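Cont'd.
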Amino acid sequence: MKRLIFACILTLVSVLPAAAQEVTDTVLDNGMDVVVIEDHRAPVVVHMVWYRAGGADEPAGKSGIAHFLEHLLFKGTDDMEPGEVHRVVAENGGSNNAFTSYDQTAYFERIAADRLELMMTMEADRMRDLILTEEDIKTERDVILEERATRTDNSPGALLNEQMQAALFMNHPYGTPLIGWRHEMETLNREDAMAFYRKYYAPNNAVLVVAGDVDPDEVIALAKKHYGPLEPTEGLEPRARPLEPVPLAPRRMTLTDDRVGQPYVIRNYIAPSRATGAQEEAAAIVYLSELLGGSSATSILGRALEFDQKLAVSTFTGYSAEALDLTTFTMGVVPAQGVTLEEAEAAMDAEIARMFEEGIDPEQFERIKTRIRANDVYARDSARGLANRYGRALTTGLTLEDVKAWPDVLQAVTPEDVLAVAEKVLQPTHSVTGYLVAPSLAPSLTPGGEEEVGQ
Amino acid sequence: MKRLIFACILTLVSVLPAAAQEVTDTVLDNGMDVVVIEDHRAPVVVHMVWYRAGGADEPAGKSGIAHFLEHLLFKGTDDMEPGEVHRVVAENGGSNNAFTSYDQTAYFERIAADRLELMMTMEADRMRDLILTEEDIKTERDVILEERATRTDNSPGALLNEQMQAALFMNHPYGTPLIGWRHEMETLNREDAMAFYRKYYAPNNAVLVVAGDVDPDEVIALAKKHYGPLEPTEGLEPRARPLEPVPLAPRRMTLTDDRVGQPYVIRNYIAPSRATGAQEEAAAIVYLSELLGGSSATSILGRALEFDQKLAVSTFTGYSAEALDLTTFTMGVVPAQGVTLEEAEAAMDAEIARMFEEGIDPEQFERIKTRIRANDVYARDSARGLANRYGRALTTGLTLEDVKAWPDVLQAVTPEDVLAVAEKVLQPTHSVTGYLVAPSLAPSLTPGGEEEVGQ
C-alpha cells in the first residue's frame, strides 16, 4: 500500500509544471510589502496580512500578548462591529482565520476573486483602528486561558515540551510558551494589548500577500487605495532578540504525570534556521529529519526500532526551517510495551552512531529527494500554500529570492551535506532530553530526593 | 579544636549587648531613603549608597550592564576627574569599593568620621552627573570581559552554575548571569550604560546608609544639603520582574570539561526569600542549610558522608535569604576517590530521606540555634556589617521592621518549622541537578548521542 502511494506521487511529480505562478513584489510608500501571486485556475483569491510580530517579540512578563491580540483583532473598530469580519466573509461565501507564531501573526481570507476589495477594506480598517473595551478583554482572556487549559495544561506532552523549550533556550524568548505562562496571561490587560498593537500593527511592519485569480496591477492599485493611507509606526527598528549563549551541558528532565498513558523519550536540539544559517544548511537538516524519522517503513529510526528491533511503536523527528532566529530539531521514540525509556533512548542513539559510521544509504537518500520535490510541487499547487510560503518567509528574515531558490537548494543537497550538518546539530551539549512518564513507571519520589532510599 | 572555638563563641555571646545601636530612618523630599546607625566605639564612618537596580533589572539582551555601569561609575563627572573617588578616599586614609548583585548596586567608603561630608559630595556628584567617553567604554568593557574570563570562563564550576541557573529560572532574569553572557557583554555600549544610569541612579531609587561615629541630625542635615537637590527619575515604578511558572520536571545536566580536577554533584532548588515568603519561612531555611551542610563535623551531610561513610571529601549547602524575588537553595557533594557522582547523589538523597523519617536531633538543633545567634551578634558588632544588613534589606523588598525582627524570627524557629519548610523546598520538580566531570570520567560522547554504542 505504501509503495503504491509512493508510485503515484512519482507520476504526478513528473506531470506538474515546476513553477507556473508569476510572483510580483512591490513596496508601498508607507513601507508595506505587497506580494502578488497570479494563479488563474480558479476564480478565487487568498488575501493575507502578515505582521512581523509574534510571541518572541513580547515584552518580558507579558507572554501570550501576541496571541491574545490576534483574538482581539476580531473585535470592533471605528467602522466595524465586533465579529463583523467573520460575518461578512461568511456572507460572501468565503472562509477566514488567523494564527500567531513566534515570528509573525497572520490574518487571512479565502474568497471569490471579485470580493478582494471588500477584504482589503476590512483588513486595512483593523490594522490601525481597533477599538477594545474592558469587556472584550475580560471575555477573550477567559477564552485564551481556556485554550491554554485545553491545549497545554491538559496535555502532559505539551507541558513537557514547554518545560524543555524553557531549558533549551537559556536566553532567547523562543523558550517562553507562545500561548503564554498562565500566571502572566491572567494579568494581560487592555493597555498591554494596545501597546503591542500600536507598535507592531502598522503598514511598515506588514506584508500583504494576495494569491489567486487576480491581475497584479489591479491588486497593487487596490492596496495603494486601502493600505496606502495608513500611518506607519515611527522608529520601528528591525527585530533583535536576545541571542543564545554557547550551551555547555546536555540537559535532561523527567515529567511525571498521572495522565500519561504512553510514555516516550524526546530530545530537542538547537538548530540553525534558513535565516540564521545558510539556506543550504537548513536544506540539509530537512533531509536529516526525513532520513531519521520521515516514514516508519523507510526512515533510519523507524526501520531499526519499529520494524527490525520491535523496540518502538513509533519514532519521530521534526524540524522547522522557518524562524527568524535559531530553531529546534526534535527526535523521539515511543517505546513498545516492556521497553524502558532508557533502552529506547540508547537504541535511538545507537542508530545515530551507526549513521555516522556507515554513512547514508544512497537509495534511501534518492527516495527522500524525490519525496521532498513532490511535497514542494504539491505545496506550490495551491494558492494558499504559496501565499503561506511567501508570507512566512518574508516575516522570518528571508527574501523573495530565498523563497524562489529554496526548491533548487533542497534538490542540491548531498549525503555528505547531511552528515556534515548532523555532526554540527546533533551535539549533546546543544540538547535537552525529556522523559514523559506515569507515576507507576517513574522512580518513586520522596521530598528531597529523586529516589527513595533506605526504606 | 572545633569544640574549643565553639565554647569561646558561647562566652562572647553572653557578654555582648544584644542591640546596642540606634537606627534612624528618614525620607528626603526627593524620595531618597536615609538610614543612620549610631556606633561611637571608633571615630570612623561607613558611608554607603545603595541603588534599587541590579542584574535582574537589565533590559533583555543587555546582560552585564548593571555591573558594567558599576565599573564606569569610577570614571569622571562634571566636577571630578576619572579615578578621583579612589584617589580622594585613599588620600584621606579611607577605603572604598562597590559591588553589583541581582537586586542592587552599592558604593561604599569607610573613612574617618570627620570626612563624611567629603564622601557625600563625591557620591552625590556621581549619582546624576556621570560623564562617559567612548574611550571609557572601550577600556572598561575589556576589563569586564577579562573579569568574565577569569571568574567564569576559566572555571568549569562557575560555568556549570551559570548553565544550571539558566535552566532553573525559566522566566525570571535571575537565570541570566550577573556578569553577563559574553556575546551580549561584547556589544554593551555607551548608550546602554547611560540609559540604565539615567533611569536607576536617582535619589528616589537610592538608599543612603551611614553607620558609625555620627550624630543622626547632622547626617540628615548633610544628606539634605548634598543629596536633597538631586532630581528624582520621573515615573519610576516599583520593580516587577517576570515571575516563575510552576516547575513540573526535575532537570539534570552534566558539564564535561578538561579542566575539572575534582568532580562533584550539585543541586539547586528554587526557594522563597525573606521578601517573597514569610520571614519565618526564610528563617527555617537558614536552619535547614546549617543542619544539612553547615559544618563538616556536625551537619547531617558532613557527618554521614564525610565521617561515617567516607564517601565524600566535602559536602555543602547554601541559601541566600535576601532576594527581591525567589532565591536558590543549594546542596552538593564532592565525592571521595573511587566514589561515583551517582553514588554520592544517592547517599545525599538517602540522608535527606532519613531526616524526614527520623526527624531532627534536638541537641544538634540547639547548637545551630546558638551558632546563628552568635553569627548575628558578630555581624551586628561591626558598623559595616550593620550598614550592609540594612542596605541589602531595604533594596530587596524588606522594611526596617523586618530587619529589626529578623534575629528574633531566627531564634523562634522550631525543628517542626524546619521539616515543614524542607518538605516545601526540597521538591524534585523544583530542582536542577548538575554533574561536573572530567572527560575521562564522563560517558564517552559521539555526535548525536550521549553514549557511544555499538563500537
